[in-house]
Amino acid sequence: MKYRNTVRACYLCYVGQAAVNNLPPLLFATFQRQFGVDISQVGLLIMLNFGIQLVANLLTGRISALFGYRRSIVFATLCSFFGLFLLWLLPPFIGFSGVVVGMAVGAAGSGIGDVLGSAIIQAIPREKEGGNALALLHSSYCWGMVLVIGVSTALFGVWGTDSWRYVALFWSAFPLADSLVFLRVPLVSLEDGQKSGVRLKRILSQPLFWVFAGMMFCGAGAELSMSQWASLFAERGLGVDKALGDLLGPCLFALCMALVRTWYGVHKEAISMRRYLSISAVCAVALYFVAVFSANRFVALLGCAFTGFAVALFWPGTFSLSAASIPWGGTTLFGILAFSGNIGSTLGPQVVSLAASSSGNLKHGLLLASLFPLGMAVLAALSGKIELKRSLSAGS
Question: How far apart are CA 183 and CA 165, in angstroms?
């Protein structure tokens, strides 16, 4: 099929994002030991990563309008490459500042690639490529997480944790290769010729948009609060061996997400997404409580991991609902929804960091973060009421 390699390039783009976002959390304890930073500084590192991504989300619509999809997505993948490459290059010279610079560059690429990857997939003619490519795109990020955490853990076992710079260099090859692929594959624009400023005003006038934006915020906060801290929680909070903790914590979390997202990509029409999001949000709250309150450390670790089942469709499910309700939103809609999600991605882990720093216990931070899936449950139910009211108004 004409766009098969385009779809694969987008999948690989999300694998590169998985490396940018999930390799550093495996190293938080190593950073503390090697560079002498505390947990609040590690929390600021997460905030920097997703803070830059949310700014990139907002700018992506403008960037793609000025330079086109191809140049923009190639730029994004090259930023992801250089971010990981600089994690290898800079720390011996400037210490922890090298980690900060590398993550900042990679975050810019991840933020642009997140929006454009979804927009490119959505623009591909469905009758030619099948209607579930967007759902499967988000599953590729999770499979990328599994790959990054599993392979990195194996490499740490062989080379030692202090080899982390070379592990970052290894992962930098993926976005570099992807940038070469995007130079050649066919691309289709999602835009319909309407000016982005006009489209933005129209989107912001929709009450449902604000509910979807809140869902993205809460969903991302619920997902990232657990995934970003699971490794350190296992190692420091539960006293589990690092390799075992990474495999049973963040790696199993990612696997749970990947399985659910892949199932959804294949059986997209088999569920009521709004009902599913409401139920899974309640389950996520319960699993947060298991992680925090269980007296058995392995049960607590499984509570962390199985949260991946519950939060898996928060992001792609909200995208799916919003695309159906605001089908004319184009890249602008994807950008501002991703922006909302990355605010949650930024503030969620930071909430955990601040609560843990003030109390000296990471469990207190995770307990506070359980408010994110609770908010998701409320907003998913609210979106259904607004959608029903709109349908009844249109019918009359």
Answer: 28
Q: Which phi and psi (to 5°) does residue 90 adopt?
A: -85, -35
- Buried b / exposed e across 120-129, counting CB within 10 Å, b at 16+? bbbbbeeeeb
Q: Cα angle at 332 between 114 and 225, to 5 degrees?
A: 40
- The span from the CA of 255 to the CA of 146, in Å, is 6
Cβ pair 155, 71 in contact under 8 A: no
Coil, strand, or helix at residue 190?
Answer: coil
Residue with tokens 């909070």: 237
pLDDT in tens, 168-224: 999 999 999 999 999 999 998 765 444 555 577 888 888 889 999 999 999 999 999
3-class DSSP assignment, residue 350: helix
293 CB neighbour count, 10 Å cutoff:
12
Nearest-angstrom CA–CA distance, 91 and 8: 33
pLDDT at 147: 94
Helices within 90-195 (DSSP H only): 91-94, 96-123, 126-129, 133-159, 164-182
The structural domains of the chain, ordered by start, are 4-395 (1.20.1250.20)
